[in-house]
Amino acid sequence: MANIKLENKTDLNATIVVELRPEDYKPKVEKTLKNIRKNANIKGFRVGHAPMGMVKRMHGQSVLVEEVNQLASNSLYEYIQEEKLDILAQPMSSKDVESELDFEKEDAEFKYAFDIAFAPAFDINISEKDKLTRFVIELDEKEVDKEVESVRRRTGKLVEVEQSELNDIIYAKGTELDESGKAFEGGVTDKEISFVAEMVKDKKELKKVSKLKKGDVVKVNIFQLFNENVTAINNTLGISKEEANDLNPNFEIVVTEVKRNELAKLNQELFDQVMGKGVCTDVATFREKLKENLEIYYKSEAENHLEHEVNELIKKKHNVKMPDAFLKRWLMETKSEEYNESNIDERFSEESVGLLYVLVQEKMAEKYNFQVEKEDIEKTSLGYTAQMFRQYGMANPEFSMIEEYSNTQLKDQNYIQRMNDITLRKMMVEKVKDLVTVKSKNISVEKFYKEINAIKKA
């Protein structure tokens, strides 16, 4: 039986040392070698009759390494379970205590040293003294008017027009110019570009590209035309970011086409396309259905905001000290493609906040006996699927379609685990809402988003 010791223990960190003597690992090694010998097909010997000495010379060291490593790993995790150690992440080879592994020496004693990190001890620090606001967003007819126009624009079609207005799409060919105003030798030539004048922030540049017709030739500053957005420039011109950064700013554009998004007509075809066949048969019903959808959407937006406030409250009220150094090293070792010495400090704060939420969730699940049932996962999956469909532009997907897609996804164990995690997270958020004092506040759409933007800037 392995000898195991807990060393260098602090509130958040410790080292577990696993010591293996020959009598701990030799029986396993010999059993494995005998099994290999039974099936060994070695030239000059019948299957299963090769000398054990030969089998040991051929496979002994690799078997020893595998069995000793496996025994050390099993012993480590059995010890953690038996001692009920509440650890974070996974144990790692110790940075300070050296392991002693000599696989060349006969009947060697092995010493494995593992660093571990403990989950911090804390209590749930949330009560009715904490106050949050649930916004109740009020809709007026102006918001419905905006939504009707938005729907008509989204389902409209592009038509060619003679002269551009601010929100029309202008298609052109752009050529890079040198300081004398001629085509720059080796530069961008006759590249197809498109833009909307309304998006141009520079007033001087905006004036140049307003009221354009097919065939018009205009000299522009390419950087100001795309609001200094190098990514937009390199994507539009089909060049690399480095090339985009090195461009001369002066360009000549020749307008090839002007197109306008013609709003879809308010007719039965539009009603059926947006709401489903036969759901709406007149403008009044169509507006009412749009208003219902908006109410659902803004209620969801308000709840999302409240959930954000819950998350901020959790972070604010649980100033929990984490084993940061261990966790940073663990991230760099286990996710080396994402984390390294140059970015770990910057990216770790986000990881540590996520871990805090998980710890609070686990603590609350234990304290308030959260139980995720099959029905809970199915309900979460239906909501998740409906939201996904809405994001893809399906405002009113049929329930049978949502249910069928959800049931298909629920055959995947990874998806089930994700739905389980989302369900637990919802249980935590709902429990916090029960524990704190939540006051409702009526607010217009405009003022609601002003509040949201103010919070983002804070």
Name the helix and strand elements from N-terminus to C-terminus, one letter apiece: EEHHEEEHEEEHEHHHEHHHHHHHEH
Strand content bin: 15-25%
Structural class: alpha+beta
Specify the helix fraction band: 40-55%
Rg on CA atoms, Å: 33 Å
Mean pLDDT: 92
Query: How does the overall form come out from the CA principal axes?
Result: extended
- Count all strands and give the number: 11
Q: Ranges with pLDDT <50 over ≥5 residues? A: none
Number of helices: 15
- Please describe the biggest sheet, giving its number of strands, its sense, and whether it closes into a barrel: 5 strands, antiparallel
The structural domain count equals 3
Topology:
Elements lengths: L2 E5 L5 E8 L1 H18 L12 H31 L4 E7 L16 E9 L12 E8 L2 H14 L2 E4 L8 E8 L14 E6 L6 H6 L8 E5 H4 L4 H8 L3 H5 L4 E13 L5 H8 L7 H35 L6 H11 L9 H24 L6 H18 L7 H11 L3 H23 L1 E8 H13 L1
Parallel strand pairs: 5-11
Antiparallel strand pairs: 1-2, 2-4, 3-4, 6-10, 7-8, 7-10, 9-10
Helix pairs in contact: 1-2, 3-9, 10-11, 11-14, 12-13, 12-14
